[in-house]
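Here is an idea for our session: we take a single protein and study its fold together. Which protein we use is up to you, so please pick one and set it down. Once you have written the record down, we can walk along the chain together:
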Amino acid sequence: MRPEFRCDCPFTSALDVLGDKWMLVIVKQMLIEGKETFKDFTESDEAIATNILSTKLKLLEELGVIMKTKRPNNKKTNLYLLTDKGLALTPLLVELAVWSDKYLRDIHPTIVNGEEMELLRSDKMAFASAIEKKYKEKLATIQYMQ
């Protein structure tokens, strides 16, 4: 299920893979919200349909953005984890959040606000580092348990 690329432009090629409605949402859910099982994703606020979720998870796995493994304490449950390639999307997600906060808040005033947004506004690199560090600690714990 490899994506088809429209041209050789690196920007367009990235959008061919990540530019649909769900791909970055799934990565964001994993990185920031801690989603890691199929059930976690289906219970999220974004309400992704199960057939679409299955397709997107498979594609993200094929692209090497995520990996699928089993939960250490429950071998029946699939666990979806970001790879280094997936974690490398952190700066992109942070920039999208900064842009959204700055340019969409006037037309979408209920965009989340609070301590994390203050850190994002004041030091986006520290924000990105903090979420990456937290995710890597989680990965280390899971790998230790296996």
About this structure: Residues 124-145 form the longest helix (22 residues). Strands lie at 66-71, 74-82. The chain has a mean pLDDT of 91. Helices lie at 10-18, 23-31, 38-42, 50-62, 84-87, 90-103, 115-122, 124-145.
